[in-house]
Amino acid sequence: MKRRELLAGGAGVILAPGLANAQDAYPSRAVQMVVAFPPGGQADIVARPVSSALERLWRQPVPVVNRGGAGGAIGNASVARATPDGYTLLMALSSLAMLPEADRLNGRAPSYTVDQLAPIALITADPTVLVVNADSPWRTLEDFVEDAKRRPGAITYSSAGNYSTLHVAMAMFAGAAGIDLLHVPFQGGGPAMTALLSGTVQALSSGPGPALSQVRDGKLRALAQWGATRAPGFEDVPTFIEKGYRDVEFYIWAGVFAPVATPASVQDRLRASLREAVQDEGLKRALAAAGSPIDFRVGDAFATFFREDSARLVRAVQRIGKVD
Length: 324
Description:
Pfam families: TctC
InterPro entries: BUG, Bug_dom1
Radius of gyration: 22 Å
Protein name: Tat pathway signal protein
CATH architecture of the largest domain: 3-Layer(aba) Sandwich
Number of strands: 11
Organism: Neoroseomonas lacus
CATH topology of the largest domain: D-Maltodextrin-Binding Protein, domain 2
Number of domains: 2
Order of helices and strands: HEHEHEHEEHEHEHEHEEHHEH
Family: Belongs to the UPF0065 (bug) family.
CATH superfamily of the largest domain: Bordetella uptake gene, domain 1
Strand order of the largest sheet: 2-1-3-10-4-11
Distance between the termini: 73 Å
Shape: globular
Largest sheet: 6 strands, mixed
């Protein structure tokens, strides 16, 4: 009996440090950063420098995995259902909360729900920007609205999919301006931008990151922006609020999420790592160059932001209603 007790006690002494080391070692292998859109969109632009900074910090690979489709729902759902061990993360956009509500409106069971994901940290929160081709006839927002009123349904705009951030922002503007625009959904912000640059569509509500370089290169013209104040890099572009559209305010944010059952110790490690990662000079340079300055929020600050913004966006989706 005493021998069995000694063996059990010895096993406990041996196993306990092993368990502690396993927790302390996170991450001990590659950590996937899922982006629910094709390359080139806002989530991708934020995810890549964040993953690079984490790789330098952790000395482990952090590959960005683009898993697009269904306006972001496929990639979001894949992380919601992933093993909750901290090795599959999501760089989500504000559409995260809108897509399940859109499914309900259209009589479909949501492929995921927001309570399946734990908010880890907000990285950026930028207003979207209304951009058109530089050779278009519209030099001002007033030009655009006047033409749209003359030709209802004739002006086309692209988006990252039905009920995506880019769709909802344009729907908010069109409703406030009393104009009818033709929505052409694509499978992500990158393809939506390509459609505008190629002339397939005529307008786009873009995140500032993807739009800034195209505006600087003279390929696109920015007519207005959805923020309460003018965004860095777009200081010469008026806001919709300045133009009298008081209810047109929208932000495309990017934040890191994990499956909700991820252990608290791993979530804490992730938050601490991301707090350190956003101080990385390479990350700061990359996001500044993309026109997406860091707006880091973690813990209760991000959870509150996410809850309040999600409620506002769900109401916006409900106003759009069913999309055939």
